[in-house]
Amino acid sequence: MNDDRWTFGLYVPEGDKLVMRVTRRWSRESEEASHREWKPGEGHVGQAFKTKRELVCRDSTDPNVRGFLIATGQNERSYDSELYMSFASVPIMIGTRPKPLGVLVATSDRRGRFAPSNNDDENGVLPDTVEPLRVAANVIATILCLTEAA
């Protein structure tokens, strides 16, 4: 992802919103900028949290998904359609808890950067680029569980 404008972030619930607690972006200047907060059900971060299911989008400009995941109101930015072309939002779950502990998010300005396994394109089957995020979400869940137990 060296040439992408990318983001990796960890959103956690705080009150009635999801706030970014940890982030890494393609540039230090971008990392230090302010971050949006999402309500459960709002945008792909809030949808993943509310539904307790990962959301993976190869092409956010696809009209079938764009309206469902678009930011509105104070979270809408003019650059969203250029900067967030592909994303994966993975809820951080522990056992049978009723709500996720947070959402791990990865975004890219490249179409097709994130795709679950068994997706194909003109050249055949694409690799599952979301699996490393699932593993990271499980590790984060384990760490949070151990922290609570201490």
Name a few traits of the molecule.
26% strand; 150 residues; alpha+beta; globular; 5-stranded antiparallel beta sheet; Beta-Lactamase; single chain; two-stranded antiparallel sheet
Strand-pairing-aware structural class: alpha+beta
What is the correct CATH architecture? 2-Layer Sandwich
Overall average pLDDT = 81
* DSSP helical segment count: 5
Low-pLDDT segments, ≥5 res = none
Counting structural domains, the number is 1
At CATH level 3, the topology is Beta-Lactamase
Instruction: Report the sheet with the most strands, covering strand number, pairing sense and barrel closure.
Output: 5 strands, antiparallel
Pfam families: GAF_2
Protein name: GAF domain-containing protein
Domain GAF: 12-115
Organism: Ruegeria aquimaris
How does this structure look, described?
The protein is an alpha+beta fold and 150 residues long. The chain has one domain (6-149): Beta-Lactamase (2-Layer Sandwich), CATH 3.30.450.40. The chain has five helices and seven strands. It has helices at 28-31, 43-51, 63-69, 80-83, 131-149, and strands at 6-14, 17-25, 55-57, 86-92, 102-108, 120-121, 124-125. The protein has a five-stranded antiparallel sheet with strand order 2-1-5-4-3, with helices on both faces. Strands 6-7 form a two-stranded antiparallel sheet. Strand 6 (120-121) and strand 7 (124-125) form a beta hairpin. The mean pLDDT is 81.
